[in-house]
Amino acid sequence: MLVVGERINTTRRQINDAVERRDGAFIEADVKAQLDAGANFIDVNAGSRVGSEVDDLIWLIEVIQGAAPVRLSIDSSDPRCIDKALERVESPPIINSITLEKKRFQSLAPVIRERELDVIGLCLDDEGIPKDLPKIIKNAETLVHGLEDIGMKRERIYLDPLVQAVSTNARAALLVIEAIERIHQELPGVKTICGLSNVSFALPMRPLVNRTFLALAMKAGLAAAIIDPLDKRVMGTLRATALLLGRDMYCKDYIRAFRQGRMEG
Q1: pTM score, two decimals?
Q2: Domain that holds residue 124
Q3: Which of 7, 105, 161, 242 is most buried, taking the most CB atoms under 10 A from its CB?
Q4: b/e for 118-128, b at 16 or more Cβ within 10 A?
Q5: Half-sphere exposure (CA, 13 Å, Cβ side) for 4?
Q6: What's the CA gap between 122 and 143, in Å, rounded?
Q7: 146-184 pLDDT tens trace
């Protein structure tokens, strides 16, 4: 189970302030803490910095890569920004993200074509977020075939079925779980990924809902999650679920994380 650490995002006040004052030490400390907690990738997002996103994203990339050898998730809605960022990354990144929206796909295709990278594909098109399982699967298939046509290998594609709030749709979580199962059945080799926070929007005790959804999604085949690895409870759920699903031989990762104080029940 791959963990994409979500914390280096300028929508978070402390990160935005650190970027504003070019406080590299603060960013380095946060990145090292995420890696120590179990992050495999560090998501980097400066999209809220309107007018300076490119410069801020490049600065963040340089600071993070100076702090530790790590693969990055380059998170931007601006293809130009992604293109500039790719010139600075040292290890093959994940691009977060591409969609079936015609304008976005066409603008990102030449950026990612024939580059060594992974890509997150959101299962939405110009009609918006799918409302039912057949539409999610149709979008998933079309997106995978489109990416393969520009040279992406299937095993480097991570599909996100797009988690919605159960507070407004009681079947929202179940829909994503079913989509994860079907994607792995019908598109073998493709991986799945999601963020957790949307599922619990407007509910009390949101972390509890998020953690429980993570366990169910992992059983369905979820390969990666965009989460805060400093949340010891969500990391505890992740490791316990991996153990119970037979993905942690001899419980080594679980026991090691417990001994190091990196998870809570």
Answers
A1: 0.96
A2: 93-205
A3: 161
A4: bbbbbbbbeee
A5: 27
A6: 9
A7: 999 999 999 999 999 999 999 999 999 999 999 999 999
